[in-house]
Amino acid sequence: MAINVPTSLFTSLLLLFCSASSLRSSTLSKSDVDLIEFPLNLEYLEAEFFLWGALGHGLDTVAPNLTLGGPPPIGAQQAKLDQLVQDIITQFAFQEVGHLRAIKSTVKGFPRPLLDLSSKTFSKIMDSALNRTLEPPFDPYANGLNFLIASYLIPYVGVTGYVGANPLLKNVHAKRLVAGLLGVESAQDAVIRKLLYVPK
């Protein structure tokens, strides 16, 4: 199965870094800073989940300076992915590292929070979503399909969060940064959907 990842994904990243650079010299209101800092929680989650799932290690190996001394995630592990899914999730992982850099080049940020990425946590989420206890328990690391299902919820939350934040931002450069983040999250969402729904 051949999947074409849109070049707009990479263009969005380039625009994102240009936006972040131009924003450093701008003055942001406290509300703009809060709206830009809040998504750091999700960006840390995405970066760690994708890095661990694809590569078997996280920010402490790839970009320890971005953690600001925050604790390592609990229960994260490398997933059993086929080559295609591993390649795509690796790209997503480094996009999320770029998101963290873009946000932290704009606002001060905060240390990585404690993240529970254990299969037990994802199992509880799936049981709650389906209103029944799955047997065997859902394990996002067991195979590529499970990892994609678990991954799907994360960019979707990012998309809705950035859509909600953008109209509330006052500074044009802050709006451009969030629009760039939104573009990449939307592209990730689309790629995951395609992988989930294209017949194998």
TrEMBL record:
InterPro entries: Pigment-catalase-like. Keywords: Signal. The keyword Signal applies. Coiled coil: none annotated. Pfam families: Ferritin_2. Residues 1-22 form the signal peptide. PANTHER family: DESICCATION-LIKE PROTEIN (PTHR31694:SF12). This is Desiccation-related protein PCC13-62. It comes from Dioscorea zingiberensis.
